[in-house]
Write a structure and sequence with these properties.
single chain, Arc Repressor Mutant, subunit A, mainly alpha, flat, three-stranded antiparallel beta sheet
Length: 258
Amino acid sequence: MTYVVTTPSFSGPMALLLELISRHEMDVLDVLLAPIIDDFVGVLRDESRELPMEELSEFVLIASILLEMKSRTLLPGRDASEPDEEFIGWEERDVLLARLLELRTYASLADAFVSLMERAARSFPRVRGVDDGFVVAPPDLLAGVTPARVALAYLRGIEERPSPSVRLHHVTVDAVTVAETVMVLAERLPGSGRTSFRDLTTGLASRIEVIVTFLALLELCKLGKVSLGQGATFGDVSIEWIGDEDVLSEEAIDAYEG
């Protein structure tokens, strides 16, 4: 059973009222919601009448929908005004903004002129001129210039200049490559058993030789000829030959430049 409401403009079930308003057969502004709510609250306070839960929930739902519809109608929204009305006054606003920018420009220029005038006020003009009899003679640019000096300058200008060169006699280049070191290690490691990288590089004199040896060991490990291990962090690297006894050829490895 739907809750029945009575208003000056409508009398009947509340669901029918919502249906009529939804079909635009009745204006929601003509319906006074306050008396309907007051009557319903009065019914709730009446202890002699008990409304079922379905009727209570239906009333709350319909009343909420009617309240939202009436609020949307009363409050102006973005679609309530015409598009032309939204742009009324924009031209006047643009003119005011342009004038404001001009005034700011004039104000900044005025501040700049004030700063220039303050700096000029701290200077004093010279009131006395040059003494009588003082003659300023320009220097003679051709003083001391002779035809012989001109010819000598011309010869210096046209003579062929030596090409710049960089002298590299003091630079030493270690002629050691990864490929050669791989061949040496392939002949040395099969008969050495398990050894360490420290023992392997003990007799090396330069740092580049140590680096090339390490790269050669990595190359042998990639080829599956040696196994590398390190028991602890920053510990010695153990090396063991696990490949065949045959000697590697240069075509079997990558040729790196040391």
